[in-house]
Specification:
The complex is a heterodimer.
Chain A (H helix, E strand, L loop, with lengths): L4 E3 L2 E4 L5 E6 L6 E7 L6 E7 L2 E5 L6 E5 L5 E5 L8 E8 L9 E2 L3 E5 L1
Parallel strand pairs in A: 2-11
Antiparallel strand pairs in A: 1-3, 3-8, 4-5, 4-9, 5-6, 7-8, 9-10, 9-11
Chain B lengths: L2 E3 L4 E5 L4 E3 L2 E3 L6 E7 L6 E7 L7 E2 L2 E6 L4 E6 L8 E8 L8 E3 L3 E6 L1
Parallel strand pairs in B: 2-12
Antiparallel strand pairs in B: 1-4, 3-9, 5-6, 5-10, 7-8, 8-9, 10-11, 10-12
Amino acid sequence: ETGVTQSPTHLIKTRGQQVTLRCSSQSGHNTVSWYQQALGQGPQFIFQYYREEENGRGNFPPRFSGLQFPNYSSELNVNALELDDSALYLCASSNIPRVEETQYFGPGTRLLVL
Amino acid sequence: AQTVTQSQPEMSVQEAETVTLSCTYDTSESDYYLFWYKQPPSRQMILVIRQEAYKQQNATENRFSVNFQKAAKSFSLKISDSQLGDAAMYFCAYRSPNFGNEKLTFGTGTRLTIIP
């Protein structure tokens, strides 16, 4: 069984640029959730994708957008990067709508915005 | 909206001893799921234990167990026989069972140090 993978592991961008982060879900999972974890804080929910549609969104502006592909992998896109976007970005996969399902996390992508 | 509070930013324990990490939460839902995740320096969030609110029996996973007090909205994690590999940030998380609202709401974490 393949776990959740994310790429790249680290990324450095400058303010105003755009970035795309990628996530491959665990084998057998159909849902991907994205979280932002600022230094010293708990992860904050960005959004979730189920069957290629957004299925819930947290308190993040529209410049955070996403995609899910037919193989259930997902992308997180952030436009017009700001310094505060520097964080660890985590994706998690699960298999809803099995309500008892647990989210399993990838290793994260560390984004630094200069 | 649900909130999760972890009031202990840091905890330390001697190797082989027992430590308890605290978590409280606020919700108006009657059914939900609670989780403890561990995040070592490698950054990957690892599931430690899960509790379904409708189950009265406290969950256990080897050296890890929880004390789930639904009325008090408390969900503490007990680690027995602490090992050096247990050193990490520990996050408590809440999840609604409702479709379209499966997001995890996390606390701010507790950094656990194991003293050899």
